[in-house]
Structures are given as C-alpha cells and as structure tokens.
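Exercise: predict the fold of this chain.
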Amino acid sequence: MTTTLADPPTVAGVVPSREERAAGFARIERLVALRNRIDAEIAEEVRAAAQREVQARLQEALVDPERVEASIIGQLGLALRVSPTRARTQLRLARDLHAGLDTIRQAFAAGELDERRVAAIVAAARHLDPTPRAELDRRLSLHDLPLLGVRRIADLARTVAAAVAPEAFAERARAARRDRQVTISPAEDGMAVLRALLPMEQGIACYAALRKAVTEHWVGPEPVTRTRGQIMADTLIERLTGESAAAPARVEIQVLVPVESLLDPDSPLPAEIPGFGPTDLLDQATCVGWRRLATRDGIVIGGDSRRRAFGGVLADWIRARDRGRCTELGCDAPIEHLDHRRRWSEGGPTSLGNGRGTCAFHNQLREQPGWHLTDRTTTTPTGRRYTLRS
C-alpha cells in the first residue's frame, strides 16, 4: 500500500512514536537509494543504446563521427525527455563511468551516490586518460562520498585530478580561459539573468569594482535610497551601456498581447515577452521601441510569404510565437534557425504556419537519414515516434 503527502500520517490526537517517525525517514532513504539505482540503470542503457547505434552505422559506406553522435544525442534527448545539451551530458557520463571510474560506478549502481555527485566526479575527470582516472577513482574511494555535498565532492575531485595529472590539469585550465563568454537567460516576473564566465581573477576584480561603487555611494552626500544589490545592478548597467540605468534602453522589445486584452482593458490575460515569459508590460518608458504582436489562444496572428527564407516581420512573428525557444520536443535552447516544417523542396510554403524556430542542432539533425518531421511528430531513424499533443 502506498501513501501520499495528502494522507493523514497518524490518527487524530495520537502523537507518533519515535519509531514511527524514524520509519518515515528510513522509507525516504530507501526511496532515494532506489532512485539512484534507477538513474544508474538508465546510464547503462544510454551507453548500450549508443553502442548499438554506432555498430549499426558502421555498416554504412561513409561514416561521419560527428553526424553519428548528433543522431544518437537527438534520439537520447527524445527518449530521456531532455534537451540535446543534457542528453550529451548523460551520454558522456555513461561512457566515462566505464573508463576507469569503476568504484564510482559501483557506488552509483548500489544507490549510494546520486547522479549529481557522480556527474561532478565525471566532470572533474573528463580530461584524464584511463590510468590517472583509475587513480582518481581509488583515492576518492577512501572518502565517505555519500555524506559529502555536491560542491565538496566537486572540489575534492578537482584537487585529486590536479594531483594525479598536474600537466593535464594545467592545460585544462588554459583551455577554460579560452571559453570565456557572456550569456543571458530569462528569470521570473519579467527579469533576466546576465552571466559572465571569466577567469577567476577578472571575475573577482569586476565584483570588487561593483562593491566599491556601493561604498562610494554610501559615503557620498546623496541620501541612500537603494539596497546594495540595486546599486551594484544599476552600476553594472551604467558602465556597460554608458547610460543611466533610469534612461530608456535603446532596444526594441516584442510583446505578445492577447486579443482579449486589446478589446478589454480589464482582461486578466497577461502579456508576454517571447523567451522571457509573462509580464505586466513593465514600464514602457524604460524602452525606446515596443512592438505589439496580437495573439489568440497563444498563437500569433500573422501573414504569409512567397520567399524561401523567413525574414523581416515574418521571422519576428515566428520567433515571438515560439517564445524564442527551439520547438523540437524536449528542447528549450534559444532559436538560432528558422525552418520549414514541411520542406520547401517538398512544396512547403514560407508561412507562419509552416515555419518553426529551432536551435542549430535540431535544424541540422532533421537533414540526416532516417529523421522525419510532420507537423507535431518527430520520427527517429529507429522508427520511434514522438508527438506533441498540444
């Protein structure tokens, strides 16, 4: 018999005994161990499925390793219900666990380690050859890993990796500096998160400069009306854009507005910024340009085009309708390409209904043999079909 959180834990008025309370936590521990074992079994199946796909493709006359890997990742993403990026991580975890991390793999299979801890170890060891990886595995086995937090395990694994292969670790650090970048992602309530991946000393210097701006503002003659975080955020905006944080931003923002809201000012239906979710239209004085796109039942009302490429307003409509995210099942990467659902070569029109926004990965993936897309259904090379019902 199973219970749920909605079930009353005890009879009214009866105080649960210490043994009953302990039994509840023991059950949670057993369920966590079961979940870990299931995740470990999934990892084994991921590795086996990838190996079968590679063996099948080796029978072809010409084999492009990158195209084979992309096809495998695409199928895994659909099967795992995750994005291609996450599927790639899952595949590498499953593969690397069999390249010297035997003790870690056994602890995973026994339910002692969860996937996050295992992934942290695999990430720390990704630059190692099998021999130093095995030494890393041996040294980590001397620690009580199930009782350590994910961050502590990650730090420990990186420290051991640096000790067993110092030259490889130094080259990894040099390569990481080449990957510096800035990204943006949506947050709740009309906000956005701007991230910068920087060399550590430069990141610390940037943060220290923003904190210094707070101190200078606090000791200045003007009254303090903003919090530390607000001052740092405003300073960042001013130093990056060269303009006051209160000045209108020189950008055009698309806003999806339900037709009901245009007809009825009291309509409860919220407007939405594609890729960033519902909004209260913010303060329109903060932006130089706004473009309102009317929607009905969440669908942008648009037009048609006879051109092959999606461009102009039509491209804007497609990106807005798809909320700035790849429309392939399980993927939420930013839109990079605009694609025809029914190929142009097969008579598919360049229209709002036949257009879709995709990431580069999925737009290129559908051109591989065995992949088919029909309206809301994706068919993989093995014949598996995945359909979006709504």
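Check your answer against the key: The chain has a mean pLDDT of 83.
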